[in-house]
Amino acid sequence: MMNGEDWRRLLTDVTGNVQSKVSKVIERGEVSKAVGVGASGDTTLVADKEAENELLGVLTRIKELRIVSEEAGNRGDIRAPFVAIVDPLDGSSNFEKRIPFYCTSVAVAKGDSLTGISWALIRNLTNGDVYWAEKGKGSSKNGSPLRASNVSALADSVVGVDLSRGLPEVAAKVNPLIASVKRQVHFGANALELCFLAEGKIDAFVDLRMKMRVTDFAAAYLIASEAGAVVTDEEGSPLDARLDLEARFPVVGAGNGALHRRILRVISS
Predict the structure, then answer these.
(1) Domains of the chain by range and CATH?
(2) Confidence at residue 39, expressed as pLDDT on a 0 to 100 scale
């Protein structure tokens, strides 16, 4: 099976091709064109499909690899020892609205849960930035090491909070947090937003809606964790979701343990 450097080269190349495909969709004026509904239940845009076709065309040739993709669902032998978790176009709504914040995300795991994720790459499809991580070896952006924020005070922190289609009780739970921080933001592509956590552009990220999926999260989880961020569920317990399209879970991430503990106290009060 391939090693970390093999995966880095392969995923860098194929996501570069994805970026080219998505750019051509924009040039053709097909930004809003839909072609159906994906396995996740969301509308599939032309850009979603072309991005996925590019990724699957490469990944399906790798032996002993099962694929979980947001659009195509499960591909390959369920008994395969390795799993690729793919979101061809995270931030499709942004893409459709021409908001320049969307990415493609690929993680590779040994086994069938989040804790087995060993390699991850996310490419910002608007500017080509590449975020990479290998388990136990740190994470990087365009080859430069990443380190999460050391801001520990809520009053000084910038926190990403996803409330999209959340229930009123979720908003009620996070309102005290929003009132406590320097600024609350949300950009509309959680995988890329968690990369911002990894590089310290935001200090924390919170999503309590129980809508987060492994395709949105898997690669970003490794990238943020390897940059030193603390990422758990809302109880502070480790995340170990199954690598399938049905799993849903909450996420509380912070650049350091002190800020993470303060966020947990606020949302649990």
Answers:
(1) 4-145 (3.30.540.10), 154-268 (3.40.190.80)
(2) 61
What is the predicted pLDDT for the residue at 41? 66
Measure CA of the first residue to CA of the last residue in the chain; give whole Å. Answer: 47
Question: Mind listing the pLDDT tens digit for each residue in 155-165?
Answer: 999 999 999 99
Burial letters 233-249, b for 16+ CB under 10 A, else e? bbeeeebebebbbebeb
> Residue 193: how many CB atoms within 10 A of its CB?
26
DSSP, collapsed to helix, strand or coil, labels residue 53 as helix
Distance CA 229, CA 226 (A): 7
Nearest partner of 187 among 213, 162, 207, judged by Cα: 162
When pLDDT is cut at 50, 70 and 90, the band that residue 1 belongs to is low
Backbone angles phi, psi at 251, to 5 degrees: -135, 130
Q: What is the pLDDT of residues 185-238, one digit of tens each?
A: 999 999 999 999 999 999 999 999 999 999 999 999 999 999 999 999 999 999
Reading the block at residue 18, the tokens are: 């994805």
Q: Which residues contact 42 (CB under 8 A, 6 or more apart)?
A: 70, 92
Tokens 């999926």: give the residue.
213
